Amino acid sequence: MTQSTASIPDPHAGPLHDDHAHAGDAAQGGHGHSHPAHVAHHFDDAEQQKDAATLGMWCFLATEVLFFGGLFLGYAIYRQRYPEAFLIGSHHLKLTHGTVNTFILLFSSLTVALSVHAAATGNRKGIVRYLIGTLILGFAFLGVKASEYYGEYQEKLIPKLLFELPDPAHSEHMKELLEHNPRVKAAYDDPVRRKGLEQQLQLFFVFYFCMTGLHASHMIIGIGVMSWLTWRAHKGHFSAEYHTPIEISGLYWHFVDIVWIFLFPMTYLLRH
Amino acid sequence: MTAINYPESAPVVEENYLNVSYDVKSWLLTLDHKRIGVLYMITVTLFFFLGGFAAIMLRLELATPKADLMQTEMYNRMFTMHGVLMVFFFLIPAIPSVLGNFLIPIMVGAKDMAFPRINLLSWYLYMTGGTIVLVSIIFGGLDTGWTFYTPYSSQFAIGNVILALVGIFINGFGSIFTGLNIIVTVHKMRAPGLTWGRLPLFVWANYATSLIMVLGTPVVAITLGLVVVERLWGVGIFDYRLGGDPILFQHLFWFYSHPAVYIMVLPAMGVISELIACFSRRRIFGYEFVAISSLAIAFVGFLVWGHHMFVSGQSIYGAMIFSFLSFFVAIPSAVKVFNWTATLYKGSIVWSTPMMYALGFIGLFTVGGLTGLFCASLGTNIHIHDTYFIIAHFHYIMVGGTIMGYLGGIHFWWPKITGRLYNETAGKVSAVIVFLGFNLTFFPQFILGYVGMPRRYHFYPEEFQLLNVMSSAGATILGFGYLMPLVYLIWSLRHGKIAGPNPWQATGLEWETSSPPPPENFLEKPVVNHEAYNYHEQEPTPN
Amino acid sequence: MSETTNKPHADTRHAATPEGTRAGHEHHIVPVRTYLLVFSVLMVLLIATIVAAKVDIGGAVGGLIVAFTIATIKAVFVILYFMHVKYSSRLTWVFAGAAFFWLGILFVMTLADYLSRPHVAPWAY
Amino acid sequence: MDKGFRFIPEQASEAASQVDALTLFLTLLTAFFTILIAALIIYFSWKYRRKSEVRPAETKTNYTLEIAWTVIPLIISMVIFVWGAKVFVHMKRVPEGAMEIYVVGRQWMWKVQHPEGRREINEIHVPRGRPVVLTITSEDVIHSVGIPAFRFKMDAVPGKYTQQWFTATKTGEYHLFCDQYCGTQHAGMVGKVIVMEPGEYEAWLNGVKADDTPLGSGKALFDAYGCAVCHSAQAPSMSGLYGRKERVADGGTGKIEDVQVNDEYLRRSILDPNDQLAVAPDGKPYARGIMPSFRGRLTEEQLISIIAYIKSLKNTPAQREVVP
Lengths: 272, 543, 125, 324
Hints:
The structure holds 4 protein chains of 4 kinds. Chain B is mainly α. In chain B, 66% of the residues lie in helices and 0% in strands.
């Protein structure tokens, strides 16, 4: 068997030898190391387990980037094709709500980062404190989002189910936009194009609800994961040596934050 | 180099992954990658024969120009079922999830995949998706074709479109998690000394495949999700009457579904590299080039999807760019074929059953690949677009490529998986039947397509009948060829000869452990200190 | 599960690692000060992007460029510091980069068709 | 139409020979490499079949070979790309003064309108030797106009116009296929392209040659307009219809009543099919807007012929039924 032969100099141990921390200890082999309780049986050591988990999460996030990417592409193409309607759409989103939510999410990213820090320094109370902070912020985000959705429902901006093209007589935003933007005004004043605007604006809100809805569902999953971690941290499952779940869940949470960092300007901020 | 002695028989291992436990629960809740691979093997076989049944029905119907065997709705549902089951539930999971799952951890010298629970989850997602699709078929089916083009699928089609899309969506995540698991396993679980330059080419190919799974699948998932949203909610994401754009669907769909073709064929290429090396008893010619060409195919494969849309009203410039880039997939594919052929030169070649599949693969893949040039070239694409020429081309890749590779791999590693040898004569006969049946089925379709027969036609002008009859005749032979292995492989489970750890005298870590392997693959952690396929260091073996 | 090791001894072991080195598998702990600093940068950028959205900077295109430049900077800060990519192995860089690179392929190749297509949309108006 | 067996379709347009030349080149290339690889495989596996005393040669990387078989395919494929792109651009660049014919696809028929206003269904009459550009769109789902003899194909996309042109070079009748799957009767969405001498085409534009008997021309019209495609599966069958009591729903109010199927009813149903909708066996009326109005498309004489033909259809059991 080849295993029994002594380790010989490895001609390929050069640049290809990038990420594998174990290739060097060829001579050691076998089961010579101790297995801490948190290391699953098929890993050599905690280091390998942690590396695998981290890489796995990054792979998953790559998947997520493209999952949202398909939606973003559709939005971009329709925005380019129907600039007037999408402008009306952006003006009817609630900028204050959006800004507050951006603040909440960025702040929650900080608390998550601090909880990872607390975990790495073995500060159990710190983990629990910061994770509870994160949960509160997560719920706050969803609350603000819900109140925003409710506002949109009241303004009849739900495509297909309850939708009306905003009337400048009732909508301040519409009035302002018609005063300042001649292209929107031209589209609005032409009865045929106004019919088109109504459909295109629905398309804006379809994408708005799909994108923010998908994002919110990620938030809900994130809150679930964080609650579970809070409980585990409270039970003292994590230590300076072992806190990989907090780290990789933190990566996920930051990713959801990054989605919002792009979603926010895409939908709320393109107002000219 | 140190001389390496391959033992005639490895130490007898009492406990293997099959006999550690027998109850149903120990299978359905197993975290052992080998058992999950076997679960996949059983289920993809089921879906293969369901999809194959639909194919046989289609071919029977097309033996005559008139619609006589079934009604048109039924025919359309039948080809949709064939496409959906074969593409999403057989071809895509076949090699990575069955052979990849079983072999990759062993080949890299690990005890399991990096994430055994996620691995099991993949199978459950696959089964959930598959069950949902089967339910949608049993309760009336759907007639959109596996491509789900809008606005037909989103507004006009009747049938259980939403249900089927949900099934495919769920299955998509199974595929993503399999890819993720393979990537992490290859990066992080390799045995000491097993550098990238020493990895078997099967691992390289599956690694490249996994990149496509991870980066492509989410796009088709969200796209099919949008079709569901449009159907449920009645909004016009892809409906021109409400401002949507049906062509956008095609871009998003083919962004995944073109690379998906490489998800199907790349792992088969990996299998072929193993078989050619083993049965020529030579290190594969141009190892680095074969390895890198897998990554090149995976990458370039993402840049060419627009050649599915040359007649869709895509801009001429867009078409030019996509056509230009499409030719670049041809290069790494050609490199592989030449390297395999060169490996045979001055080898010591045995025509075993797996080798027959491998050599058949090279021939059929060559035809499939070269006819791809007709599709990449703008001038000819227009004429053959959506005709039987395309059907023939991609069946040469998917059936002539993927299924030949899959069967070759199953025959090669069957002794490892089950510990038993099958009847070699039966294996050879069925390989020949599959090869001949395949060519009789699909070669006439090239001509059929060029003379103009469109795809997805239930009835057709009489002058196309002769070629259709040939194709249908071939399909029955092919169907028979596929049933044979089912019979003799199952028979071998009880009656086959005991294989021993390395019946082919092959190299690779999987042959250094017992057959079937022990629950944690190796009794002792392997250490690698040589390159893959060091057959030239073996003593010459008698025939 | 081990419940004994909750003392912050790890802090002293790692605190000496110089910031900004790619420590590889050597575990790195980012000081709290860095997090707070990054958070304040993010806050400044948030205010900047809101202000930029209120005033007209070069119309639709200008607004788009400004908004997305700021968003990208914010995302880069989150990725590098909060997600520790700055201190991670090259492999993490590759995977984080690949995701965005592939997103780029999706966008660029699709827009190559859309933007070079003279678009008459009879259904639009 | 030539019904014999053939390897390539008739070359009936100016682009056909260009496409076929490229196809021939690609076919020879495919044959060359396939035979080369197959021959090498067979030769090697015989020559180097396993003999117990022979040790296989050690594999060394041969960079010259690797580079050669990377670069040579690259050069060949660039040749193919340029050649293919040239043919494509030629097919796409519409020449000045091309005659424009509008083609509208709908489930499951082609509606064609000529520049002088003449309309036809499932047939496209074109003059020989004159560039014709088809401007194509769809009313519902994506279809595709495929004319193999012209090596012509272009999708009919709802909500936008697509264009491609051809110059027919040979008189005769050629297949017109729908190449993009479009629903149940996709395979029935076929027609003919009829290439005529320019003089004949002018004459055709100006009038229709009547058949001898109303019944004969009625059958001809029934076939030519593809009536049977729908009126066998998606719409009520015509067999034994005449003289029966038929249950219909008012197109506006939806009120259901029984009517006597007579000449007047048939005429109204052809001209204004949506005013009264026949009720399917499952008790629901057939959908509105499936059948187009033939008002203005059929002369009174033609209407009479079609009605005469429908009258002649007896109840035959061969008709297929609607799948519930």
